[in-house]
Amino acid sequence: MTTDESHDRAAADAIAHGRAALGIEFGSTRIKACLIGPDFQVLATGAYEWDNELVDGRWTYPLDAVISGLQAAYAALADDAESRHGARPATLAGIGISAMMHGYLAFDGAGELLVPFRTWRNTSTGQAAAELTEALGFNVPLRWSVAHLYQAVLDGEEHLGRLASLTTLAGYVHRRLTGRNVLGVGDASGMFPIDPATGGYDEGMLAQADELIGRRMPELKLAPLLPEVLPAGADAGALTPEGAALLDPSGALRPGIRFCPPEGDAGTGMVATNAVAPRTGNVSVGTSVFAMVVLEHALAAVHPEIDVVTTPAGDLVAMVHCNNGTSELNAWAGVFGEFAAALGIETDADAVYSALLGAALEGAADGGGVLAYNFLSGEPIAGLEAGRPLIARTPGSALTLANLMRAQGYGVFATLNLGMRVLADEGVAIDRLVGHGGLFRTPLVGQRLLAAAVDAPIAVESSAGEGGAWGIAVLAAYLGQASDRSLADYLANEVFAAGGASVVEPEAADVTGFARYLERFQAGLDIERAAVATLNDDGRTGTEKEEA
């Protein structure tokens, strides 16, 4: 028997006998399912494409799309498992659900959604976040669930009188499948601050928040609204018969499968990159871009650019979160793909990205005078309440494909650099920074551009392309082991024991070029503010809208 035949037989056996673990992650543009074997290798995958919608001025996803996307992604995974290994899952070693963090999902006592899901991308909570930050002495970002709740209080929203519970997207899906209203500590830390000593919500801050909210709604108390907090490895419930029918309407999947705590995409990204120990960190690159750095101790001061959250094990993390990532780069890739098709050239998305990102490395180190603003939505770190994607250049700049794509790549990481400077000024030490997300599927380019932006070596694990769906599957495999070994030990000595990371060092010319680009980028932010003021969401200028 060949090695490949032995591996295929082992994979089929793991699926048939319920030794595989399943992770499902709800990303900004894809719902991805990933099935891993006892050796953590991917056995099957499935995906469903979706996107957020701007409805009545707020970014949202309809909950019926959440469920239909869940079912479609799982069905695609089951089909893939049968196609590749001749076996469909009937039971599993564990299941984990992950999703975009933060935002606002509010339910009444019967479990009915009170207002459309308000995602992390919304930036309409400025007053609430500012007042909470001052009252708590702790940075409360615009996208956190408590900021959305308090903004609703400030706005006198009618639904608050019927409010019975709040959760995140991962928490909602987990509750539908298990009946348990729980969250992993990493995801919970995006709802309300966590006390690292207890692993639960900070009691002192809860009292302070209740006092602030109580000035307008004395009857509204936070603690009863929030999900129970659980660390990685804890038992978070089991698949109910109703949950099994929801996840797999075909009826093949049996109830009773154990679940790990539902986590946010930041936490699963940390797992997927082996970055949960102090002095390690990662940068997740997708619709948003965020850096996560595990702290040795608390920060000395409160910084509006830095969110303090936790790892899935409960350790403090400094998070630099940028609302805008690769969406604009993706749009340009779509345009060039259409252009290739118009020329009669058949190609696929990976080939388009490979060509465009490869061209970026041929561009001038500073982008040749071309500026790319990737702001589809507001960007708090840059001081923007709303966004308009733009290309700007001087008449003397060189508009070439290489410079355009270099500028687009730099634009993805420009705002991240502003936040990382704050951590450097705080003296935060980083031994290892790992990149993950779809951008790193094209070898070298994403690493080199990110290395230029942060002036540090960037590693990419072989699992980086699988991302958070693989990470939450690993957390499902970790179920029940927290009492015997830490998550950091489990990852380092079992999951990633074989190594396999590639490392790219920053090149001096790129670092200098990025610095010049960033100087122009910051100076040009007034261009972005003018665009927000004059160009409405429907593409018409303010004057055109008034005339209409």
Automatic annotation (TrEMBL):
Keywords tagged on the record? Carbohydrate metabolism, Kinase, Transferase, Xylose metabolism
Q: Name one GO molecular function term.
A: kinase activity
The residues covered by the Carbohydrate kinase FGGY N-terminal domain are 21-246
Per UniProt, residues of the Carbohydrate kinase FGGY C-terminal domain are 282-478
Q: Which residues form a coiled coil?
A: none
Q: Does the keyword Transferase apply?
A: yes
Q: Which family does it belong to?
A: Belongs to the FGGY kinase family.
Name used for this protein in its record: FGGY-family carbohydrate kinase
